[in-house]
Structure formats: C-alpha cells, structure tokens
Amino acid sequence: MTKLTQIFSAIISNLILFSLPLFGSDPSVVSQLDLARYQGQWFEIARFQNPFQNESEKNITARYRLLDNGFIEVINACKQTNGKVKSVTGLAKQQSSKSTSKLKVSFFDIFGWRPIWGDYWVLYIDTDYQVAVIGDRNKKYGWVLSRKTTLSQRQRDTALAVLNKNGYNSQKLLFAIHD
Fold it and tell me: What residues have CB less than 8 Å from 6, skipping those under 6 apart?
C-alpha cells in the first residue's frame, strides 16, 4: 500500500466514522397526538442537561394552549437557584402535516419573527395523557413530563425504556424537584 493510498484510506475511514451519527435512525414518535388533550399544565419530571435551563432549580412546569391560528402557546416556568420564579413564553407548531407528534418550538422572537425553531417530538404519551416523553431528532434534548409532580415506578420505568430504546442514555437524566 502506498503512502497516498494509506492517507486516502484513513481520510475515508474517518469520514465514515464521524458521519455515522448523521445516518442513525430518527427517534420513534407516537403515531398520533391529540393536541386538544395534550394542552394544559405538565410538570417536568426529568430532563437532559441543556443550555437553556441552567438556572432551573425546581417546580419546573410547561403549559400548552391551542391558539385559533393553529399554533400552540407554550409557557415554561421554574423557580431559579436565586429563589425567583422565571417564565418564558414561546410558540409551537406542527413540523409537517403528516405527523401531529413532530412539533417545532421557538422561544426566540424578534419583533414577531422567529428565526430559531427546535424539535419537540413526542416519543411517548400514555393513553390517559398523563405521562409524556419528549425528544428531538438528534437525541440531544429530552424531557419526561407528567400531569402530577411524581411518577409511579411503572410510569418511570416506561419513560426510561422509551428513552433508552430511542438511543438516549437515561442514566444522564437530571430529575426535577417539586415542592
């Protein structure tokens, strides 16, 4: 093998190796999400570390409300480490007409223009709409939500299994505190 062939082979090998995550399968989402049943208040049970919740200490909630224009109002609130309650309002929309389970959400608004939208994919929802598991296409962000501040052991096991099945490492979850 010539030196040039070795270099070319190494470059191709590295390109394949570092491209593998790009070709991984998308997380599985629920087949149909009833947005009317999904609206209302949810408590964050657990999440993966992310840059937009660094100061979230406890009592983390998300409230969803369907709007007449087809968007969903999203109000996230938490008690920060300094003791103050902070909330942020955003909008969610269906990512495509093919799936109600794949949403996009934006909390960044410039005079009504929202240039940044993030994935909000519903990976799991129980039949009573009491527990939900949320993720994104890249398996970087994820949340476990509940209508109550705690989960039963069965609900917790199910949520962790959904995350693990979709390529998340559930051992890296940060569990929320509610008082």
Answer: none
Q: Is residue 133 pLDDT above 70, yes or no?
A: yes
Q: Count the Cβ atoms, other than its own, within 10 Å of residue 26.
A: 15
pLDDT score for 12: 40
Q: How many residues does the chain have?
A: 179
Q: How many CB atoms lie within 10 A of CB 102?
A: 20
CA distances from 170 to 76, 126, 133, 150 (A): 23, 19, 12, 17
State pLDDT tens for residues 100-126.
899 999 999 999 899 999 999 999 999
> For the chain, what are the domain ranges?
26-175
Q: According to DSSP H, which parts of 29-150 are helical? A: 35-38
Which spans in the chain are helix H? Answer: 3-23, 35-38, 153-165
Q: Check: pTM over 0.90? Answer yes or no.
A: no
Domain 26-175 has CATH 2.40.128.20: yes
Q: What angle do CA 99, 77, 112 make, to 5 degrees?
A: 60
